[in-house]
Amino acid sequence: MPSWLRKVKSRVRSFSVAAAALPLAHVTEIAARTRAAHTGRTVGMAEVAAVRDMVTAFSAMDERHGGAHGRTALVQYLRDDIATLCRARHRTEEVRAQMLSAAGRAGLDLTRVQWTVSSHSGGGGHCIRIGALDGHILIGDTKNPDRTPHIFTPTELRAFLLGVRDGEFDHLVQPS
């Protein structure tokens, strides 16, 4: 049993309300799906999905029970399992990119981000979204919200926006 799962189980036992609501069987099942990298097998999209599911489970644990128990377990999961999955052999470059995206998402609590989408997008999901988290600016794709957003400092974003205002990037966009 991975050390992060032992830690979750021991912490949950000490909190009877959390123990009643936390689906440990589900968490254990997700963990079993990520064992490929530890056995030397090639990592595919099933393992990427398992990492995303585990990150969601830990976030849900924190939202329901507080106390940062899910966050503590997530840090161990990052160290013990996700790092191994990122270094493993991947079926394709796209799988590798998706695994790195899932790992990056694990380090960010994106549930706290208030996303904004341009009113010029027409609501069809063909736009970028922008939000702020811990003093950084996040820019993501509305068509692929599960992908890790790009992260910038306010200074970097300000420089980019000034370039947009000055027309420096107009040549990249065809008139609509």
Please write out the topology:
Elements: H1 3-13, H2 16-21, H3 24-33, H4 45-65, H5 69-87, H6 93-107, E1 116-117, E2 128-133, E3 136-141, E4 150-152, H7 154-165
Antiparallel strand pairs: 1-2, 2-3, 3-4
Helix pairs in contact: 1-5, 3-4, 4-5, 4-6, 5-6
Q: How many domains in all?
A: 2
State the share of residues found in helices, binned by percent.
40-55%
> Into which percentage range does the β-strand content fall?
5-15%
Shape: elongated
Strands, count: 4
Average pLDDT number:
76
SS summary, helix count: 7
Radius of gyration in whole Å, from Cα?
Answer: 19 Å
Q: Which parts are unreliable, with pLDDT below 50 for 5 consecutive residues or more?
A: 12-21
Structure classification: alpha+beta
Q: Record the strand order, biggest sheet.
A: 1-2-3-4
Order of helix and strand elements from N to C terminus: HHHHHHEEEEH
The largest sheet is: 4 strands, antiparallel
User: Termini distance?
Assistant: 56 Å
Written description of the protein model:
The protein has 176 residues and is α+β, with helices and mostly antiparallel strands. The chain has 2 domains: 3-107, no CATH class; 116-172. 53% of the residues lie in helices and 10% in strands. The protein has 7 helices and 4 strands. The protein has helices at residues 3-13, 16-21, 24-33, 45-65, 69-87, 93-107, 154-165, and strands at 116-117, 128-133, 136-141, 150-152. Strands 1-2-3-4 form a 4-stranded antiparallel β-sheet. The chain starts with a helix and ends in an 11-residue tail after the last helix. Mean pLDDT is 76; it is low at 12-21.
